[in-house]
Amino acid sequence: MIIVFLGPPGVGKGTQCRRLASSLQIAHLSTGDMLRQIMASSDPRAETIRQRISAGQLVPDELVLELVEERLAGEACRNGCIFDGFPRNIHQAHQLDELLAQRGTPLDVVICLQADEPILVERLLKRAKLENRPDDTLQTVRARLQVYQAETAPLVDYYRRRGVLAVVQSEGSPDEVYRRIVETIRRQAPQIAPSIFAGDKE
Ligand code: B4P
Asked: Helices 61-72 & 90-103, crossing angle to 10 degrees?
């Protein structure tokens, strides 16, 4: 089972993917989390990552792809995974297509979370007060929103043409958004809906 979550920064991808992955009992592959983990270590790639994330730019594709490839091959992804924040541009999407073709697992659904910009900015600035992330300043948030429009938003059409895209409004409480996601999966990808934990369905 393979699910991709797309959406602008702060739209709630991480929040929803964690819950859905736990319900489906599949791995949650957040490239943002993987990069922050390396950034906090003594890995030689940490400085490149820190510079790009702090500037609100994407981290180089080769670096991200190496991480994804390694994780996807791991035992934790045996039953599938949810990609959170990957792919983030057309090149990454092509690479993902190749990885999935090699593995012989189709992409079940791409969920694109959407919310108006003032809501995104408000959520990210609120998070800035709670977590010490280098990319939640107002200036960096603006840069990230621009990068999203230029590089990631074209993926919406890419996946729509493939017939796997579902757009879900991410305004409202996390519980409300989660209910919409489950409803959308039932309609768009009925083949995976039965795997959603019964207690999470309503
Ligand atoms: P990510 O870690 O993916 O971060 P994000 O897009 O900001 O956040 P997300 O949408 O997951 O929001 P969250 O649930 O946390 O990326 C960070 C950076 O890493 C990127 O800018 C880039 O530099 C780099 N990167 C990552 N992947 C890459 C790739 N594939 N290629 C290249 N570079 C890559 O929610 C945000 C806040 O809102 C939280 O505080 C949450 O509690 C709150 N919230 C969530 N849902 C809410 C709701 N319904 N109501 C109210 N608040 C809510």
From this structure: 20
